[in-house]
Amino acid sequence: MLAMIWSQLRHRAWRTGALFTAVLLATTGFTVLTGTVNTARLRVVGDVNANLRGAYDILVRPKGARTAIEQERGLVGPNYLSGTFGGITQAQLRAIQAVQGIEVAAPIANLGFVAVLRTVPVDLTDLVDRAKARQLIRLDPTFLADRGLSSFRKTESYVYVTTRPLLAPQNVQQAGGTLRYPDGSTRPDDPRCPLAVLEVQEDGTKLPICTTSVVQPGDGDSGEGAPGFTIVRLLPDGRFEQFGATIGPQPWLVVPVVWWTVIGAAAVDPAAEARLVGLDQALVSGRYLTATDATQPAEVGKSVPVLVADESYVDESLRLALSAVPDAAVADLPGTRSDVLRTRLAAVTVAARGERRLDAAALRGDVSRFRGQALVAFNMLLQSGLPEYRTGSGDSLAPVAGAPDPTRWTGFYRVSGGRFPVFLNDTTFRSLNAVMRGEATIAADPVGAFDPGRLHGNSALGRVPLETYQAPEAAGADAASRTLLGDRPLRPSGAPQGYLVSPPLLLTSLAALPGILGRDAAEKSISAVRVRISDVHTLDEVTRERIRRTAEEITAATGLDVDITVGSSLAPQTVVLPEGKLGRPELRLAELWSRKGVAVAIIEAVDRKSALLFGLILVVCLLFLANATTAAVHDRRRELAVLACVGWPRSRLAALVTGEVALVGLSAGIVAAALSVPLGAAAGVRITVAQTLPAAPLALLLALLAGVLPAIRAARAHPGAALSPQASVVRRRRARPSRTVLATALRNARRRPGRTTLATAAVALGVSAFTALLTLTWAFHGAVTGTLLGDAVSLRVRAVDTVAVAVTLALAALVVADVLYLNVRERAAELAALRAAGWGDGPLIRLVAYEGLVIGALGAALGAAAGVLFLDRLAGGIPPAAYAVSAGAALGGLALAGSAAVLPALSVRRLPLAALLARE
Fold first, then answer.
1. Do 697 and 30 form a contact (C-beta atoms < 8 A)?
2. Picking from 137-151, 181-195, 333-347, which range would have the lowest pLDDT averaged per residue?
3. Which helix (H) or strand (E) holds 533?
4. DSSP assignment letter at 172
5. Torsion sign, CA atoms 895, 899, 902, 905
6. Rounded to an integer, what distance in angstroms lies between the CA atom of residue 562 and that of residue 495?
7. The pLDDT value given to residue 271
8. Which InterPro entries match (predicted)?
9. Confidence band, pLDDT 50/70/90 cuts, at residue 214
10. What is the pLDDT of residue 362?
């Protein structure tokens, strides 16, 4: 039998060579590409492991704290802490800490937002005309936020500079309301000119300077109070003496400008925070918090030890327009009542003298400046909720906007004449509640400052929101928004009801909570616990199971909401921010939310993708082998029938066919194993001998699988077929020719449904892989990527996939060409009859080409649909661009089938049509 197998292979050298080439191409490609993808996978896993961990592995929040959007999309919001105030008890914290395998469980108690009253010095020395006896400088402050898109113009203030002597009142006798001055003079305290400073005029008379800062009805409604008024004397020696200042005369004129803002405050466990992020190593001045830093008695009320962030994270700036009041209006100022003065000054036209600009850097938290220029009261807290969203087009998020009600906070902020942070006047995206304790003031006592940039525990790509130390921000999602923002991200303003809010960057110790909130409230004041698990270095299955079991134990022990955040990465969500009341237009933003489980999804997706793409090579090769072997058996049916006549049993007939294809497959596998090492080296991939060992068995298995059905068909050969002429089969199948070439091609495609289906499947597999390859970038912007980690990894895995798809398409083209060539051989007599009926070479060539295009069109349509479905499974969603790409891939598949049909169509010219007709 071996001699006969070898004889058959030699006498059909073209067919043997085609089989050998197909197996060699598939096996070599599979071996080399598998080695390549193993290397690429190691890089992927290495990238994932290098960016595996954020600051914590598990996030524990109060029951029900997870929002609907987070639940629906598998995300953790960037501002998850800003709307959570308490909900986890000290007992639940101890239960978490008792779970085995936890390296650190760091609690954080979100207190809310404290209003910070700071004064910013503004130098006006260069605006003073030293030749004038008296002058009045006007300051018009405008606060800007949202990269300058939102603005609020505050009430103007004035600086009165005089060279005349000034007398300040020493005391007030409440009974008689009499003011007494250092020179012994007195005057009644007039409510229209209260606590007046007297200016000694040129003629010796003393006139009161009635400032504009007297509060009138309606001043408090806007939270602005009355216009400020500063009185300064220019001394004969050129120095400036500012009345009401705590320092003496200075060589320059510097006036304080009030700047209200808000900043988040929270309490932490200092020891746990040091282990989690190295907070103790991030100090830039002062000392670190201790576990015993409780609320302490102070001169007035209590004081709370706090750490202050040396970064404001508040996107606010102040623009001061400076101008000079006309001398005529200033000349009448002494002695003019406050109400009259305000009316008169509001009507004059001032002369612009330039402007000053200050940004949020003036609000940095250096301890010395914070202690000297800031007033923070922990018994006045603002607590905001989380934004609510509506889902828009393309799964965009639209936060629900509301109207501001600034009058609610007028009584809340009675400090400094009832003024409050100006951006409380802007559009609201969060509910806002005031929490005010009726006891004495609880003031912040800054003991140290820290730099959030020095903290550790966050990778650049794989991270969860570390919002205790990071300001949330959102970049423009389209060109118009990026232009409006000046190509800078949107950051929080000093508005706790805004969409983006300042993180808690005033930190105190948990020990201080009873003194701030009361003992009962402090017991259940923890807002979140960030858990870091010990010995997590890679994302293998054992580690993943250990993390999962730890999360389950926390849930069982506490009943709280638990999110596994290890392996997360930031994923942009499109947010359509409605226009604001203070001028900001609508913005489309890309906000980074944390998608959970990205690292696991990437590794699994790479494995799925590679296995499927490389498996397609083997499948298409199997189709080619099955078709070629089946055709060989069909051509040899008379020969097999003769062997059956001489007594060959069915098993031996089947073994003959199986042996032929097995020998070809095994030979190709051995050659493929030998070629894999040098080809891998040429591709820059190290292929080991161990990796080449499966090549021969794999090729043999392919050949045996492809030969199963042909062998069964050979075993069923009937001895009577040896006596029936081969041409009779053709005559039985001949039908009346259709009127058109295309109709004939369609009929021919239906005559061999099995063969047509095989070729269609090969094209469909190639096109589906091609579709997935072309849309791989969009797929990695779905659930698998579209994250910082996924985008970085996706760039590492494309070259291998491209080669795999190219091999698959090449094999698919071979299948189509082989099917069409076999059809031409089988229908040679029919083609001869059509030539005799008057069909020329052109119609006959088109007939074969159209049959190839019919196969290609059907396979391309099925393959494009399958590619889109594969993409959906790979990335968890179908990007809109995938449909356009799949259509392009389908056209490419159609062109591939058309190209594969060229040689079989041209072979019609070489058929001995005259001899075929004579045989008929």
1. no
2. 181-195
3. strand 528-533
4. E
5. negative
6. 30
7. 95
8. ABC3_permease_C (IPR003838), Macrolide_Exporter_MacB (IPR050250)
9. confident
10. 62
| Secondary structure of 188-242 in HEC code, one letter for each residue | ECECCECCCEEEECCCCCEEEECCCCCCCCCCCCCCCCCCEEEEEEECCCCCEEE
Secondary structure (H, E, C), 741-809 = HHHHHHHHHHHCHHHHHHHHHHHHHHHHHHHHHHCHHHHCCCCCCCCHHHHHHHCCCCHHHHHHHHHHH
What pLDDT was estimated at residue 582?
A: 92
525-564: pLDDT as tens digits? 999 998 988 887 766 667 777 877 888 888 889 989 888 7
* Cα–Cα nearest to 82, from 313, 414, 377: 313
Report the percent of the chain where pLDDT is more than 90. 22
Query: To the nearest whole percent, how much of the chain has pLDDT over 70?
Result: 73
**In this structure, what token pair is assigned to residue 397?**
């998020």
Let me know: does 445 contact 370? Beta carbons within 8 Å: no
Q: Which residue has the tokens 């021969």?
A: 696
CA dist 440 → 310, 443, 515, 623, 771 (Å): 28, 9, 11, 86, 70
The three-state secondary structure class of 402 is strand
CA 829 to chain centroid: 65
What is the rounded distance in angstroms from the CA atom of residue 634 to the CA atom of residue 645?
Answer: 17
- The Cα-based distances of 883 to 802, 861, 879 in angstroms read 20, 12, 8
> Which position has the higher pLDDT, 376 or 5?
376
DSSP 228-296: EEEEEEE-TTS-EEETT-SS--BSS-EEEEEEEEEEEEEEE-HHHHHHHH-GGGGEEEE----TT---E
The residue with tokens 């609020």 is 152
Return d(Cα 257, Cα 598) in angstroms, integer.
Answer: 48
Q: What is the mean pLDDT of the chain?
A: 77
Question: Domain spans of the chain?
Answer: 2-48+600-919, 125-252+317-358
Handedness of CA 857, 859, 864, 865 (dihedral sign): positive
Reported as type and span, the H/E element at residue 887 is helix 881-900
CA distance 908 to 870: 39
Read off the pLDDT of residues 398-422 as tens digits, 9 standing for 90 and up. 999 998 876 666 555 544 444 567 8
Query: CB neighbours of 897 closer than 8 A, spacing ≥ 6?
Result: 763, 813, 816, 852, 853, 855, 856, 857, 859, 860
**pLDDT tops 60 at residue 598:** no
Structure tokens of 836? 């005799």
| Calpha distance 148→590 (Å, rounded) | 19
Q: Which of 759, 883, 879 is nearest to 821 (CA)?
A: 759
Sign of the torsion angle spanned by Cα atoms 44, 50, 51, 54: positive
Collapsing DSSP states into helix, strand and coil, what is residue 449? strand
pLDDT in tens, 51-62: 445 678 788 889
On the question of pLDDT at 798 being above 60, the answer is no
Distance of CA 349 to the CA centre of its chain: 52
Count of other CB atoms within 10 angstroms of residue 75: 21
User: Which residues have a Cβ under 8 Å from the Cβ of 571 and sit 6 or more positions away?
Assistant: 75, 592, 593, 594, 595, 598, 786, 787
Q: What is the pTM of this model?
A: 0.64
Sign of the dihedral through C-alpha 815, 818, 824, 825: negative
**668, two tokens:** 């190709």
Distances (CA, A) of 478 to 164, 402, 487, 509, 586: 60, 25, 10, 43, 12
Question: CB 681: neighbour CB atoms within 10 A?
Answer: 12
Question: Tens of pLDDT along 299-308?
Answer: 667 888 999 8
Tally of residues, the chain: 920
